[in-house]
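Moderator note: this is an archived Q&A kept for reference. The question asked for a predicted structure of one protein chain; the sequence and the answer are reproduced below.
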Amino acid sequence: MFSPPVVRNMSRPRRPASPGALAAPLLGAALLALPALFHVANATPARAEKAATKPAAKAKALPADAATQLVPSYSDSGPEPMLDRIFAAIEQRKLDTALEQTEVLLKQYPNFRLANLIKGDLLLARSRPINAFGALNNAPAEKVADLREEAIARLKAYRQKPNADVVPRYLLQLQSDQRYAIVVDTQKSRLYLYENDAKTGRPHFVADYYITQGKLGAEKSKEGDKKTPIGVYHVTSSLEPRKIGDFYGSGAFPINYPNEWDKRNGKSGHGIWLHGTPSDTFSRPPKASDGCVVLANTDLNQLAKNLQIGLTPVIISPSIEWTSIDDWAKERAELNRTIESWRNDWESRDTDRFLRHYSRRFQGDGQNYAAFAQQKRQVNGAKEWIKVGISNVSMFRNPGKDEMVVVTFAQDYRSNNVNQASRKRQYWIREDGAWKIIYEGAA
């Protein structure tokens, strides 16, 4: 019914589409021009339904039987399927049907403010034409605007779900013990959960949820800027509701912002969590937090079942880049070959070969490239042999303009005089067409 997401051409950068360009005609009719939908002069909803013989022009409405059928059960998609039917009914001026659907929705989610606002407008439309979304009791313009944005965000994401044959470009490889990965699209106010296929290594879509981000959007750079960070993070702990208060809902899961790359780039701040909503609130507007990613408590409870402390990656992007399975496999294979070449060159004790894998802008463990190179020459010169084992590798592409991949693995280093096992993290960046390590340290 709706256009599939564009599969990214790996040879050309993709310009993110504007929110306006992404809005389906149905959304424009149902939300941006709501007065025209409700404005049926001196007509009750029943009479309006009789007068409407077809959907508005350009509207890609559901089939009549699907649009008018009440649905007693609910899918894992939360309120979005019912919202979709409600707005389809409104478009067709079937206001009685829309009201019945809204009441069913409110039985499931009594604190859903958007649904309450829609119900108010539909009731008001019984007695007189209304000229604006949120006309009942002269609702505050700012709050109405927030609810309109929430409706648009929920319906756009529901109607533009990714195809099964594409994956987020960021999920190049999960560790064998990482069961799930999270990808957040701040532009769409959506969180996507993917499961790691232990046999193929391919990420499989599981579920998606509406989220709230920072009041001033994404790209956090400093303490108190009311923005949500962009990057590759991991869940670090779990906070129980009784310890953090009702404002954070049914729980909270901090992530490791600022990460190593954030710190290197001078970014500051702390306390970025995935968390829920107050007990009297079903959901918050798309931009309403101080930088955290906020979910409805029902969604957070579902998500929490799949989170692994210290393991689950949380990748936050301004707009998800989707890629075909073939392109995903090619990029993953290329990076694995590059990492294997780095490992072999380390074992060779040929320091020049080894150092060709490092950027001149390298920094790690307090060393710049020059200090690191000098140390490696001294160490390798004193070794009779070196063996390096690498296992349980994860690779996540960092969102943003830089071609960067965050690589984490278990390292087993052995030589004639040292045996050492550790967990290592590297940031690989593409320079002059080749992958180079720009950061390296303990994970």
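Archived answer notes: The two ends are 45 Å apart (CA to CA).
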